[in-house]
Amino acid sequence: MEKIYKYPQSMVQQGITTKQELQQRLQDIFEQVEHQESALIEIYKLFFPNWEDIKQVGGFPDIGREMWKFICAQFIEFDSQHHPNVFKGGLWISHGFFSSEELAPWGVSMENCNIIYA
Predict the structure, then answer these.
(1) Which among 75, 96, 107, 116 could disulfide-bond with 5, CB atoms 3.0 to 4.6 Å apart, if both were Cys?
(2) What pLDDT digit, counting tens, does each position of 48-97 carry?
(3) How far is the C-alpha of 3 from the C-alpha of 97, rounded, in Å?
(4) Is residue 81 one of the residues assigned to a domain?
(5) Mean pLDDT, the chain, as a whole number?
(6) Quick check: 70 and 79 in contact, CB under 8 A?
(7) The domain containing residue 41 runs over which residues?
(8) Are the CB atoms for 59 and 51 separated by under 8 Å?
(9) How far is it, in rounded angstroms, from Cα 46 to Cα 12?
(10) In a domain, 15, yes or no
(11) 89's torsion region: left (phi>0), alpha (psi -120 to 50) or beta?
(12) From CA 74, how far away is CA 9, in angstroms rounded?
């Protein structure tokens, strides 16, 4: 199984240590929610498991291009089924994470995030 490069310890503690585990967790999110905003929040919770204690996140996590495309495709498919009159994937494009060519395809970096706790 492929290990994910620069993986946040918070995700390892959730049992996610491979690309396949992360893909499955992301797919599960889209199967369990009824609205795109809920999907986005659940993705943030996946990357920030102490989400309820956070007042504000300044900046966005950087993720590898392949992961960004995978999540965007999930939003496009979800929007096609649940929100046919919106710009498909638009919420992810405007409020999702940044894509980085400098990271491994499924890499994660929190270096550009400034977290303010409540």
Answers:
(1) 107
(2) 988 999 999 999 999 999 999 999 999 999 999 999 999 999 999 999 99
(3) 21
(4) yes
(5) 91
(6) no
(7) 9-117
(8) no
(9) 11
(10) yes
(11) left
(12) 25
